């Protein structure tokens, strides 16, 4: 999808989508104003078996048959978070100010678990399984109805409400985790799901798509866009995102804007690509028999 972007826009889009690092583990979208000069374009799809990967390691090029599915260790993940945040002058330490977290962070008191769900990282499935583990949901939801977990059923567990009932001392004793995703695949997923004209996708951010089409194609008549059912191409979406420093929507915003960093430190971080493998480890820590949808 990126082959039609001019070089200048492509470079800016890579900074937008991946921030200072594009290592398999980081997946933190950093703000737009990061200088392009600090972007080592490391498109790595696999961590070497020896796990000795540093921020300046060369890209790994492995055939599919050579890929290993062993998830990276948590200490390595935490070290990458720490290094990345130091680069933007943030200290990822053991602080525990969970009450400062935004609306995408939840607390489930019965299972004593904190979870931050960033859009387009499989957060709906995780909220669903946590609601079942907590006892709020009595049975597994139909996957086609998964979006209901973002409504009233989960509202009482959002940190903005829980902070009025519990202290940071209580939150500090909870098990905390989040899921992160390769920023490039996350943006493609967001585009397809929210903006594209694919029949199998939602295009539920139509208003944003209309604005992109109008500006990028210099169409002043809103009626024209709607009557002709015009949708933005991925290239138009990318150029618009670069031009406007984002789209003002959490589905396309830097992941670091949703994560509760640096106010708190997560005990466990799940790369989305390893959710199937690591979900059992997370759920064992919560001590529940509930399983993630699809696993």
Structural write-up:
The chain is globular, with a radius of gyration of 20 Å. The two termini are 30 Å apart. Helix 1 packs across helix 10 and helix 8 crosses helix 10. The chain is an alpha/beta fold and 295 residues long. The protein is 35% helix and 6% strand. The chain is built from 11 helices and 4 strands; from the N terminus they run ααββααααβααααβα. 35% of the residues are buried. The protein has a 4-stranded mixed sheet.
Question: How is this fold's topology laid out?
Answer:
Layout: H1 7-18, H2 74-87, E1 105-108, E2 113-116, H3 123-134, H4 152-155, H5 159-162, H6 168-172, E3 175-180, H7 183-194, H8 206-216, H9 222-227, H10 234-243, E4 268-271, H11 275-286
Parallel strand pairs: 2-3, 3-4
Antiparallel strand pairs: 1-2
Helix pairs in contact: 1-10, 8-10
SSE order, one letter for each helix or strand: HHEEHHHHEHHHHEH
The coarse overall form would be globular
Oligomer: single chain
The first-to-last residue Cα distance is 30 Å
Number of H/I helices = 11
Low-confidence stretches: 15-67
Largest sheet: 4 strands, mixed
Q: What topology, given as strand order, has the largest sheet?
A: 1-2-3-4
Question: What class, by secondary structure content?
Answer: alpha/beta
- Compute the CA-based radius of gyration: 20 Å
Mean pLDDT: 76
What is the strand content?
5-15%
Fraction of residues in helix: 25-40%
Count of β-strands:
4
């Amino acid at each position: 999808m990126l082959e039609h972007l001019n070089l200048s826009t492509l470079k800016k889009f890579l900074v937008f989508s991946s921030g200072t690092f594009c290592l398999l583990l980081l997946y933190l979208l950093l703000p737009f104003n990061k200088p392009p000069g600090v972007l080592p374009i490391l498109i790595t799809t696999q961590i070497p078996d020896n796990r000795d990967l540093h921020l300046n390691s060369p890209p790994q090029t492995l055939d599919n048959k050579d890929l290993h599915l062993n998830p990276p260790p948590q200490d390595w993940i935490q070290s990458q978070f720490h290094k990345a945040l130091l680069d933007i002058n943030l200290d990822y330490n053991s602080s525990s100010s969970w009450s400062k977290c935004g609306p995408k962070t939840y607390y489930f008191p019965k299972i004593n678990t904190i979870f931050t769900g960033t859009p387009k990282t499989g957060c709906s499935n995780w909220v669903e399984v946590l609601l079942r583990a907590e006892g709020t949901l009595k049975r597994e939801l139909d996957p086609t109805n998964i979006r209901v977990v973002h409504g009233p059923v989960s509202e009482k567990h959002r940190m903005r409400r829980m902070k009025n009932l519990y202290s940071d001392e209580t939150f500090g004793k909870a098990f905390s985790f989040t899921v992160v995703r390769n920023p490039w695949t996350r943006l493609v997923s967001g585009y397809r799901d929210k903006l594209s004209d694919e029949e199998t996708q939602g295009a539920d951010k139509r208003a944003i798509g209309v604005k992109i089409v109008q500006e990028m194609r210099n169409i002043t008549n809103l009626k024209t866009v709607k009557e002709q059912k015009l949708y933005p191409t991925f290239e138009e979406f990318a150029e618009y995102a670069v031009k406007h420093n984002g789209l003002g929507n959490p589905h396309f915003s830097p992941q670091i804007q949703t994560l509760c960093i640096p106010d708190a430190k997560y005990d466990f971080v799940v790369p989305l690509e390893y959710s199937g493998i690591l979900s059992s480890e997370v759920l064992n820590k919560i001590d529940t028999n509930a399983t993630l949808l699809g696993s």
